[in-house]
């Protein structure tokens, strides 16, 4: 049933509009990243036809297969605008080169070593790789992300590397049904982001909010929401 993805996208875009408006923000300042992990190229193509340009992927090998299959798919046939790919999954050192050569954005940088490799490996013929630092706000030891107290020094160093451009911060909050606890994590990320900007970094991106919590994230300043399930359905 092809219309489902188009309808789901409409619903998500309406939710973004409503949440931005309720927060006194411009809807156009919140970018929708469609998280297409586990989705086929055909499914992604349906989202493209419905107007979606940016896609987020978690697994390098899976993403590269789909990029190849979708290489001739343009988002807008008049302007030949191509799809934009964001890497949002845990990034192993041995995969940095593939990410540096094939993606436009990386949201999950949490160590200097990873950033240095991406910087070295980003081909000169491409624009700088757009980078967010992933922050572990909840402090759960099982989770990736740099600790809040280490963000400042990491951000300053990463911002000085060539071939990559530090754009902002990303977080995945603790799984909780407590809306206040959830909102606190987003608020903390926003505070860290604002503090970095007062120290002279020109960051413009807060990557936070997913299918179930995008409204809360937008209320706290999210500029990119990463939405999978609400667009493509439950993953198996
Ligand atoms: C899978 C994933 C998402 C999307 O989550 P949904 O709940 O399906 O919207 C967002 N961000 C990251 C980092 C993910 O891995």
Automatic annotation (TrEMBL):
Keyword Transmembrane set for record: no
Modified residues annotated as N6-(pyridoxal phosphate)lysine in this record: 37
InterPro entries attached to this UniProt entry: Ala_racemase_N, PLP-binding_barrel, PyrdxlP_homeostasis
Cross-referenced PROSITE patterns: UPF0001 (PS01211)
Family membership noted in the UniProt record: Belongs to the pyridoxal phosphate-binding protein YggS/PROSC family.
UniProt keyword terms in alphabetical order: Pyridoxal phosphate
Every Alanine racemase N-terminal domain range: 26-235
Coiled coil stretches, renumbered: none
Name by which UniProt lists this protein: Pyridoxal phosphate homeostasis protein
Function: Pyridoxal 5'-phosphate (PLP)-binding protein, which is involved in PLP homeostasis.
